[in-house]
Amino acid sequence: MKKKILSTFLASLVLAATVLSGCQSNTKPAEDAASAPAQKTEQAASDEAGATAGKKLKIGVTVQTLSNQVWSVACTTMKELAESEGNTLTYMSCEDTSAKQIEQIENYISSKCDVIMVNPSDPNAIENVCKQARDAGIKVMCWDNNMKNTDINWVIDNQKLGYMIGEQASTFINSKFKDGKCEVAVLDYPQTEILLERENGILAALKEKAPNAKVVAQQPAINATEGINAMETILQAHPNVKVVCCIGGGGAVGANEALKSSKKIADDVGIFAADATNEELAAMIAGEANRMSVMVTGTPKVIGETVYKMLSQLGNGEKFDNQNVYREIFPVTVDNAKQYYNK
């Protein structure tokens, strides 16, 4: 009897073991077969997302000159932002020389940058090397010109901007001088295509809005040193110049210094320009000759932040709706200068 009970008990154990063994061998592989591919896909997706998010960008920037506050502050801002995110950003001045700019772009290609930004001395001269960059898989952004071999162009309607400068100057002229008669000087920079467009806008507005004003002198000036020299030369030949229209803030700052040195600062003397640099705004607030400057996008720091964001978007594969991205322009006067002045 005991043997029979023991035999039955042992048989039950064997059966239980067999059932358990069957569950393990049949159920587990089925679960693995169903879940393993899903787990692998999720892991791959996670790895891919991590790789994209953690990608470190290498950015190369070449601008016309760093003597202009807008470009210098924007570039230092971009570099600081890049380093804060673990990216690398190198910027250089081509000193307004196309051959040097081409060499800089070639070096950025050789060093395998992810993104290159160009502020062209001559856009036509660098079209081919920018094509080489894009052929190498590098994204290219142009700051200022409507170029062909780029992913995006960050541009200004320069005729419109120049017209705004001339229009503001005309309002001043008509309010300060009988019949709008006065002598005007223009600090231009015709060797750069977009700045020639700006100059043409200034002259068109003056002709239309202040027809009795006379442009007696035009001198090139893109930075403060050139502005001082140009304005001193103009004042020697035309001491009665009362209004100065400048294509950029660098020349405007120099013109103001020359007028101060010549003791020409007066209620009926005004400088009208673009860029709204900190120096221009300080002069406005202090009641000096700077009366108005067209701000483009924002302060140089805001410009740097805006440019860096676009460069990051390009480097991370984001698409833009249009190749040409137009910038906002608006006048800054003594009435709103403090809003944009950075102490």
Polypeptide structure, described:
It is a single chain. The protein is of the alpha/beta class and 343 residues long. It folds into two domains: 58-155 and 301-327, 3-Layer(aba) Sandwich (Rossmann fold); 158-296, 3-Layer(aba) Sandwich (Rossmann fold). Helices cover 54% and strands 19% of the residues. It contains eleven helices and twelve strands. The chain has helices spanning 2-53, 69-84, 98-110, 123-135, 158-176, 193-209, 224-237, 249-261, 278-285, 300-315, 337-340, and strands at residues 58-63, 88-93, 115-118, 139-144, 152-155, 183-188, 214-220, 241-246, 270-274, 290-296, 324-326, 329-333. The chain has a six-stranded parallel sheet with strand order 2-1-3-4-5-11, with helices on both faces. Strands 7-6-8-9-10-12 form a six-stranded mixed sheet, with helices on both faces. Helix 3 packs parallel to helix 4 (123-135) and helix 7 packs across helix 8. The radius of gyration is 33 Å and the shape is elongated.
